[in-house]
Amino acid sequence: MKEERASTFEEYHTLATARGPRWAYRGVARASYELVPSLGRPRGAGLNVLATERDSLWLFKTHALPYLGAKPETDWEWIALAQHHGLPTRLLDWTRSPLVALYFATEKHPEDDGAVYFFKYNGFIVLEDFPDPLKVRDVGLILPPHVTPRIAAQSGLFSVHPEPGKAFDSDNVTKVIIPSKCKADLQYLLSQYCIHRNVLFPDLDGLCGYIRWLKGFA
């Protein structure tokens, strides 16, 4: 994995526009965060990660229906929906927008450097070839079904990790460090381009989060 640094919006813009098509981006508020999906993050010794995932998804399917406007039609729709609402899964969020990724790299933890991962990909997993998300054998990207407005608003993608506890590393990934001292200025500049919480989270939670930031609340 290569590493670069962007201390200004102009430097970041140069790095992003130097890339051609087929790049995905992931912003993290702490540069120390590796590319590990939520399912693979430590939760106690002896935990059977894959069995826990399958059981958690079954519970989600069993109890989620009363809260849904429409029932998901495929296991990919189910796991994308579960990931979106915070269930630990083998999926990792990415975006096709370097500006959206920069927002998430600068939104929180002002005391820490953030980072944006740039990932050069070759294509997408054909979902019809792997109807069961838990049987994908290699790390790859999927174009998620837009089961929620947030996924569409954030130009969302997911990577799928058959070994959730193993940090993803590749020669096709560049980690761009965003210094902590730049975060507040970049957040303000992004808001001028309408990259803020009310746009990326098009619901009442997003609206209130945007107003909270606008008025200086933590």
Question: Can you give a write-up of this model?
Answer:
The protein has one domain. The model has no long low-confidence stretch (mean pLDDT 91). The protein has 218 residues and is α+β, with helices and mostly antiparallel strands. The chain has helices spanning 9-17, 49-64, 75-84, 98-106, 149-153, 183-192, 197-200, 204-214; strands at 2-5, 23-28, 91-95, 114-120, 140-142, 156-160, 173-178. It contains 8 helices and 7 strands, in the order E-H-E-H-H-E-H-E-E-H-E-E-H-H-H. The longest helix is centred in the N-terminal third of the chain and has 16 residues, at 49-64.
State which percent range the strand residues make up: 15-25%
Largest sheet: 4 strands, mixed
Number of helices: 8
The strand order across the widest sheet is 1-7-4-2
Number of domains: 1
Give a topology summary.
Blueprint: E1 2-5, H1 9-17, E2 23-28, H2 49-64, H3 75-84, E3 91-95, H4 98-106, E4 114-120, E5 140-142, H5 149-153, E6 156-160, E7 173-178, H6 183-192, H7 197-200, H8 204-214
Parallel strand pairs: 1-7
Antiparallel strand pairs: 2-4, 3-6, 4-7, 5-6
Helix pairs in contact: 4-6
Which key features would you list for this structure?
single chain; 218 residues; alpha+beta; four-stranded mixed β-sheet
In summary, what is this structure?
The protein has 218 residues and is an alpha+beta fold. The protein has 8 helices and 7 strands, in the order βαβααβαββαββααα.
